[in-house]
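In the design runs reported in the main text, the only information available to the sequence generator was the tokenized backbone. The following block is the verbatim input for one such run; it is reproduced so that readers can re-run the procedure and compare outputs position by position.
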């Protein structure tokens, strides 16, 4: 690609990955094999699949009747009690806090009284906080999370934020809101808007406190791509993450550019396009009541399902490519960008992917296959 001067080669870093995670957190106890590609990188673009490290780890078999998790709650990776753990909600509405090390047992916390009866909700988890947004009742709930218990700290009613403004929450599994430094960022739509039911802005910015049930609306935040304001775009869901102290990274499932927002300078920068040609299939609005068409469309469209940020601020975009037949194999692809939103590497992922089980680790990312039997670590 033009403008690139440095050759990059995907490589495994013992210092950056193995030391802080395997040694201190015992990341995987079952280690049956490592695949090392001996070929060197040539040119400015390294294939992602040249050096994947494969860990055979039958994660799914550790749970009775397989691993059943609620996609609304999502699957989260955090450090808790000085160990790397995965958190999800099982079919019995219990929070499972699972250390990666196989011989350690899972912690179970009953969460049924909090989520039973909720149809649409989303969760965000930090080191010791669990945030839940109840979409239907417009409640934002804050919990203190420990390894063996959970404590409700506050519940904030946000109905006044939407009343009279024509706003509606843009619900999507595992990506309904973001929280950072006392601010809540809510993606929203406008059902009465003529521009594809969207406003020109993408998020509402709200100030909150853990000790006060009141909230303060700050501003509308960030912008939709202009293409989204036309009919025929269905995958308009966004992703928002903090890149630096005053810099936010945001992108969309159905758009092939990332954006960087500097809150101090109030400047938005659009990154390099992932593809020269637009490949997202438009939605046929004439078939919006055809359930079979909607199912086919959602299962076959191309979309960006994960945006991951590594410790060294590289950005990994995991994409499912478009296909025509739901019976054909899914094909996954990855783009790697630096913090200036320039593409430094890309490549096809040559194994199946479980979209919820993809996590940033060290200077790379870890991704499980669909059966949760193997995990692959990639780094650049």
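Verbatim output:
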């Amino acid at each position: 690609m033009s403008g690139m001067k440095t050759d990059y080669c995907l490589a495994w870093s013992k210092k950056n990955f193995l030391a802080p995670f395997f040694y201190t957190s015992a990341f995987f106890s079952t280690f049956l094999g490592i695949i090392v590609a001996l070929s060197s990188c040539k040119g400015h673009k390294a294939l992602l699949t040249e050096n994947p490290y494969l860990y055979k780890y039958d994660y799914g078999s550790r749970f009775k009747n397989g691993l059943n998790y609620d996609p609304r709650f999502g699957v989260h990776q955090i450090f808790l009690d000085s160990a790397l753990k995965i958190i999800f909600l099982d079919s019995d509405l219990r929070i499972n806090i699972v250390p990666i090390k196989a011989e350690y047992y899972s912690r179970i916390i009953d969460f049924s009284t909090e989520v039973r009866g909720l149809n649409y909700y989303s969760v965000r988890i930090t080191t010791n906080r669990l945030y839940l947004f109840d979409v239907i009742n417009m409640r934002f709930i804050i919990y203190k999370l420990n390894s063996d218990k959970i404590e409700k700290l506050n519940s904030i009613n946000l109905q006044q934020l939407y009343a009279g403004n024509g706003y509606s929450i843009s619900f999507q599994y595992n990506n309904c809101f973001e929280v950072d430094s006392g601010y809540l960022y809510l993606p929203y739509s406008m059902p009465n808007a003529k521009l594809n039911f969207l406003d020109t802005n993408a998020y509402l910015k709200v100030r909150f406190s853990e000790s006060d049930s009141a909230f303060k609306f700050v501003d509308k935040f960030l912008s939709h791509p202009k293409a989204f304001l036309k009919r025929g775009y269905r995958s308009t869901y966004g992703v928002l993450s903090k890149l630096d102290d005053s810099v936010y990274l945001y992108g969309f499932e159905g758009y092939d550019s990332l954006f960087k927002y500097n809150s101090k300078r109030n400047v938005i920068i659009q990154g390099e396009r992932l593809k020269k040609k637009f490949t997202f299939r438009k939605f046929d609005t004439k078939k919006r009541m055809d359930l079979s068409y909607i199912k086919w469309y959602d299962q076959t469209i191309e979309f960006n399902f994960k945006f991951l940020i590594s410790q060294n601020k590289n950005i990994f975009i995991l994409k499912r490519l478009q296909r025509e037949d739901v019976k054909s194999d899914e094909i996954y692809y990855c783009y790697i960008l630096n913090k200036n939103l320039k593409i430094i590497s890309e490549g096809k992922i040559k194994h199946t992917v479980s979209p919820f089980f993809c996590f940033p680790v060290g200077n790379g990312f870890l991704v499980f296959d669909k059966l949760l039997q193997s995990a692959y670590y990639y780094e650049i």
